[in-house]
Amino acid sequence: MREVKVLGSGCASCQATVRLIEEVAAQAGVQVELEKVEEMQEIMKYGVMSTPGVVVDGKVVHAGGVPDRESVRGWLEG
User: Fold this and answer.
1) Phi, psi of 31 (to 5 degrees)
2) pLDDT in tens, 19-47
3) 35, 33, 37, 25: which is closest to 69 by C-alpha?
4) CA-to-CA distance for 25 and 2, rounded, in angstroms?
5) HSE of 34 in the Cβ direction (CA atoms, 13 Å)?
6) pLDDT of residue 78 exceeding 90
7) Four-residue CA torsion sign, 55, 61, 63, 68
8) Other C-beta atoms within 10 Å of 23: how many?
9) What is the distance in angstroms between the CA of the first residue and the CA of the last residue of the chain?
10) Helices (H), the chain
């Protein structure tokens, strides 16, 4: 199981990122524990300055804008 956090204020891009991760995980058959982190102090702990940010298993893998489907697949299957 992959631990995935989406860092962001809950904006449209953040919501789209959550949906994308859910879709890709389901298609790839990868179980994820998905958490939305909206508190700025928590987001800043990861050093993310532009949202949405994505953290997979404790490592920041993306910041700023909705990631593409292939990147998400790589993070989840990697």
Assistant:
1) -80, 135
2) 999 999 999 999 999 999 999 999 999 99
3) 25
4) 10
5) 19
6) no
7) negative
8) 12
9) 12
10) 12-28, 40-45, 69-77
Residue partners of 32: CB distance under 8 A and separation at least 6: 1, 2, 3, 4, 21, 22, 25, 76
Q: Where are the domains of the chain?
A: 2-77
- Joined tokens for residue 35: 């958490």
Confirm whether pTM is higher than 0.90: yes
* Token code pair at residue 3: 């631990």
Which token pair is 77?
Answer: 């299957």
Instruction: Report helix angle 12-28 to 69-77, nearest 10.
Output: 50
Does pLDDT of 67 surpass 90? yes
User: Which CATH topology does 2-77 take?
Assistant: Glutaredoxin (3.40.30)
Residues constituting the chain = 78
> Is the CB of residue 48 less than 8 Å from the CB of residue 7?
yes
